[in-house]
Design goal:
Elements: E1 6-9, H1 27-40, E2 44-47, E3 49-50, E4 56-57, H2 60-73, E5 78-81, H3 91-94, E6 104-108, E7 112-114, E8 117-119, H4 123-135, E9 139-144, H5 147-158, E10 168-173, H6 183-191, E11 198-203, H7 208-218, E12 221-224, E13 231-233, E14 236-237, H8 241-254, H9 262-268
Helix pairs in contact: 1-2, 1-8
Length: 273
């Protein structure tokens, strides 16, 4: 079994300091949380950005400042900026970080209910995102919230509309309105992957730790972080993203799986340093 790649999604677009005071907004806070996660064992940092008051933004220059600051603190880490942004943003807004030529970026694979909102990723949007990533030589992490999302992006890859083999998927399970975070759902999604693919599982809220354990045991990879879950255990809020990552490292050790360094993760994902 390959070594385990741990991703830390350090802030997201919805969670706030009212939920957990350690959620980062400022550049300095983003660096603090990225470093805490990397030092604990995360090879990958998934990056949303905020203004200093916590408002989600996809502003290219804000991304540039944050990504440069994180790279200065943890130069070996793989950084995956979000093109999901926040619900209600236009595709043009959301694509701004791809102008910075990151080695990877997320690509959301379909429209879905997202709590009380609708997260719109229609086919024209997905084609535009795929075209941009092909043009800029960016490896997507394909974000799938439902089985239909996986089928859609595999069909697009066959047609050359998005980057193809080898593909990296992130199965985000447990979002209200989307596929629940169950081992059955994860197993079904994994069974439909093309040979040679890599995959990560993200369990949202109470699904975080069951999905982390399942991902470790099934040979996949795991994402945790304040974007998805703020608790180490019921009633116990994490003080940092590093604490969440450290729990995954502990689980991996108990289950007999080694954790990948950033260089090893880059090799597993087929990235060039």
């Amino acid at each position: 079994m390959e070594k385990l790649i741990i991703t830390a999604a350090i802030c997201g677009a919805e969670v706030t300091k009212e939920h957990n005071p350690a959620v980062p907004y400022t550049v300095e806070e983003m660096v603090r949380e990225a470093k805490s996660a990397y030092d604990a064992g995360a090879a990958v940092i998934h990056v949303h950005v905020r203004t200093d008051d916590g408002t989600p933004t996809q502003d290219r220059e804000r991304f540039r400042v944050v990504l440069d600051a994180i790279k200065a603190a943890v130069p070996e880490a793989i950084l995956i900026p979000s093109t999901g942004g926040a619900t209600g943003m236009t595709p043009e807004e959301r694509l701004q970080p791809t102008e910075l030529m990151p080695e990877m970026a997320t690509l959301d694979c379909g429209t879905c209910n997202f709590g009380d909102d609708i997260f719109v990723n229609d086919m024209p949007t997905m084609r535009a995102f795929g075209k941009r990533m092909l043009e800029n030589n960016i490896k997507p992490e394909y974000e799938c919230f439902e089985i239909g999302h996986l089928d859609t992006v595999l069909s697009m890859a066959e047609k050359g509309l998005v980057p193809g083999h080898p593909m990296q998927f992130n199965f985000v399970l447990g979002v209200s309105g989307c596929a629940p975070a169950t081992v059955d759902n994860l197993s079904f999604l994994v069974s439909k992957l093309p040979a040679g693919s890599t995959w990560t599982v993200t369990g949202v809220g109470r699904g975080a730790w069951p999905m982390a354990a399942a991902g470790i045991m099934m040979g996949g990879n795991v994402r945790v972080g304040f974007e998805d879950n703020i608790y180490l255990e019921r009633g116990h809020k994490a003080k940092s993203n590093g604490e969440l990552v450290a729990k995954v490292v502990e689980l991996a050790k108990l289950l007999g799986r080694e954790v990948a360094s950033a260089d090893e993760a880059r090799q597993i994902l087929g990235l060039k340093k």
